Amino acid sequence: MSQLAAAASATSTGEAVQFWVLGTVAVLGALGTILLRRAVHSALCLAGTMIILAVFYLANGAYFLGIVQVVVYTGAIMMLFLFVVMLVGVTAADSLKETIKGQRWLAAACGLGFGILLIAGIGNASLKHVNGLGKANSGGNVQGLAALIFTKYVFAFEITGALLITAAVGAMVLTHRERTERAATQRELAEARVRGGKQLPPLPAPGVYARHNAVDIPGLLPDGTPSELTVNPTLRARGQIRDVSGEALGELKALEQRSQDWLERTEEEAKK
Amino acid sequence: MNPVNYLYLAALLFTIGAAGVLIRRNAIVVFMCVELMLNACNLAFVAFSRLHGNLDGQIIAFFTMVVAAAEVVVGLAIIVTIFRSRHSASVDDASLLKL
């Protein structure tokens, strides 16, 4: 009898291998989402996890949902996230300073406790009998879903349409910005700049001419220190500035050393 | 392998997402963690649908996806609006009502 129950609840070896391999990757992706500091890396990890979930949907007989997961979640929602990260997240690396003391450890402990509770609950539930979707999917998965959506769930389906329209209008209202005053002309901007008196000429150019002219390398002041003002503020905020002042000084030192060696040798030769 | 393992995986992913919501400070990443929790619920629904042998679980997962899409659109619009007015996407900085 227990063998029969085991046979009913068991799945193929291929699915087991797929579950353990892809499940590990999915958990790693989820951990990467919450642990990586840059929002772009989090988004890419989450996209990977969602694709793996799509594979699991397909393995569970939810063929329509598997495709919708790829198209809607990884295709539309994650790309929307990436767009907003590009729009917002230039300086959006998380600060590591804790505003509430010990909040991170408390949160981790809460998560752990919650996870234990959830998994123990599933472990205690009696889920021995597996029916399988063979009968429900016999007329095709999409046909089966359509029969349910347009009969039993038709009211929820129509309300969903209203929700989507509301969301689209809401997003437009939220991000729309009405210009209440006239845009400043070029002459007014120039006058304001002169009146401000902060930086009248154009900002100094980046790069050390004759050696480097890349935009991420700050120009050197007369005393050899790099000038932060010469680099784009976005690159400054990201910390993507390459400093070559030390390199130049090191090369100068090496040159002096070489000339010393050369001079000593010629002196020795002269002594001979 | 027992299909119940999918439920364990869903519980694990949901827990990781919940911990992320509590730990992270960047509003976009918090939002991504909420998406992770929604996805974990969807996986549980699909697994339940298979365990019970009917398609109702898949229908619920489908509606969850639609609601998640609407939620993402409005949520990201709110984040962009907050970023425009405060020049920060950190959930700690929006503390105007704090004493």
UniProtKB/TrEMBL annotation, chain A:
It is found in: Cell membrane. The lineage of its organism: Bacteria, Bacillati, Actinomycetota, Actinomycetes, Kitasatosporales. Keywords: Cell membrane, Membrane, NAD, Quinone, Transmembrane, Transmembrane helix. It is an enzyme of class 7 (translocase). It catalyses: a quinone + NADH + 5 H(+)(in) = a quinol + NAD(+) + 4 H(+)(out). Pfam families: Oxidored_q3. Its main location: membrane. It is a multi-pass membrane protein. Belongs to the complex I subunit 6 family. Its EC number is 7.1.1.-. This is NADH-quinone oxidoreductase subunit J. The chain crosses the membrane at residues 17-36, 43-65, 71-93, 105-125, 145-174. It comes from the Bacteria. NDH-1 shuttles electrons from NADH, via FMN and iron-sulfur (Fe-S) centers, to quinones in the respiratory chain. Couples the redox reaction to proton translocation (for every two electrons transferred, four hydrogen ions are translocated across the cytoplasmic membrane), and thus conserves the redox energy in a proton gradient.
UniProtKB/TrEMBL annotation, chain B:
The chain crosses the membrane at residues 6-23, 28-48, 60-83. Keywords: Cell membrane, Membrane, NAD, Oxidoreductase, Quinone, Translocase, Transmembrane, Transmembrane helix, Transport. It is found in: Cell membrane; Membrane. It is a multi-pass membrane protein. Its EC number is 7.1.1.-. It catalyses: a quinone + NADH + 5 H(+)(in) = a quinol + NAD(+) + 4 H(+)(out). GO terms for molecular function: oxidoreductase activity. It is an enzyme of class 7 (translocase). InterPro entries: NADH_UbQ_OxRdtase_chain4L/K, NUOK/Mnh_C1-like. It comes from the Bacteria. NDH-1 is composed of 14 different subunits. Subunits NuoA, H, J, K, L, M, N constitute the membrane sector of the complex. Belongs to the complex I subunit 4L family. NDH-1 shuttles electrons from NADH, via FMN and iron-sulfur (Fe-S) centers, to quinones in the respiratory chain. The immediate electron acceptor for the enzyme in this species is believed to be a menaquinone. Couples the redox reaction to proton translocation (for every two electrons transferred, four hydrogen ions are translocated across the cytoplasmic membrane), and thus conserves the redox energy in a proton gradient. This is NADH-quinone oxidoreductase subunit K. It comes from Streptomyces varsoviensis.
